[in-house]
Amino acid sequence: MHLAAHFPGVNNTTVWTEGGPEALGNQIGFDSFVHLARTAERGLFDFFFLAEGLRLREHKGRIHDLDVVGRPEAITVLSALAAVTEKLGLAATVNATFNEPYELARRLAGENFRRGGFLDRADRYTRAAEFVAVARTLWDSWPEGERAPRPFAYRGEHFDVSGEFSLPRSPQGRPVVIQAGDSDEGREFAASAADIVFTRHGTLDAGRAFFADVKRRLGAYGREPDSLKIMPGVTFVLGDTAAEAQERAVEVRRQQITPQNALLALEQVWGVDLSSYDPDGPLPDIDPDPESRLTQGRVRHADPFALAERWRALSREKGLSIRETVIEATGRQSFIGTPEAVAAEMDAFVQEDAADGFILVPHLTPHGLDEFVARVVPLLQERGSFRTSYEGTTLRDHLGI
């Protein structure tokens, strides 16, 4: 089993109300990054993952203030964490649309964007595939053991670069590529270019279907099934008894989805100001605005009409208010129970080909991973499902690729 840690914050999964006023500073304070990364390394995790927003988030013309609106630049944070960890892999979002391969290849080997404007959705994976190909051309142009680079040249639809790469090959050859995206194009891109897929398929049946679909695509690219690790992002809530864990999980969800966050979630689907609605009342009977620019700095739902109808159906079926609907529809507590039960369920996912491992997203910053490492990791080790020591020094070693 492979385990990784995700630093929470740029979403509504963080519980803000625990820890008092100082808890707010924990969301971007460097000590928080250090604590979570060192906890993950103590738990022998493969890597620490940091998502990145490309701009400050805005809602209804104001800087968003219901969760983290931004954070320090990801590669800068990981560079600093490299100084305070030894073997833990370090991973971050890097946007292929707004970066250049040569610049990124240099940054990973050792106003933010040269080009402006967005790409059509259909073109993003085309550029991403070419982006990875160019970066790999650069990294591979200095063969292992040689004292100088070989000239490189690449000409394609999006990039035209040539020359010599000035940095020698790193100990793991190439950085590990992690892909997130569930469309058919995303799955095909993962099969062709990624080492890890970060997925949201959290149930056993959905996980097995996704696992089988992506793994079967690898043969077309001359790859073996184990060369791509499928790692869903998951949450967890532990308790000394099953009942205690369920009680804690309910409380966590209510803390995550406050009345204000419930209306925010609804506005991001409908694209209109819903501040006049009661969070404890029924869902709006108006249609979403597909052209809305109410929210900036985050991805808009691809089909707001379909999502709104699913939420309405859920509300009608169970008699739920706005807040209750959002809690039900967006719940992400993947593993809830005693440490023994959680270890067994996680193990089952891996043994039954629903995942190769998990990227854990704790709901507290920075101590949310502590209990898992102390209480669940030893049980996974007793089962023989998780390492008892690091056997290599690079992330590729940890992943076995």
From TrEMBL:
Keyword Oxidoreductase: yes
Keywords for the protein's UniProt record, in alphabetical order: Flavoprotein, FMN, Monooxygenase, Oxidoreductase
InterPro entries listed in its UniProt record: Diverse_substr_monoxygenases (IPR051260), Luciferase-like_dom (IPR011251), Luciferase-like_sf (IPR036661), NTA_MOA (IPR016215)
Organism superkingdom: Bacteria
Domain Luciferase-like: 22-109, 114-351
GO molecular function, one term: monooxygenase activity
Residues that hold FMN according to the record: T93, Y125, S183
Keyword Oxidoreductase in annotation: yes
Protein family membership: Belongs to the NtaA/SnaA/DszA monooxygenase family.
PANTHER family: ALKANESULFONATE MONOOXYGENASE-RELATED, C2H2 FINGER DOMAIN TRANSCRIPTION FACTOR (EUROFUNG)-RELATED
Protein name, entry field: LLM class flavin-dependent oxidoreductase
Source organism (scientific name): Streptomyces daliensis
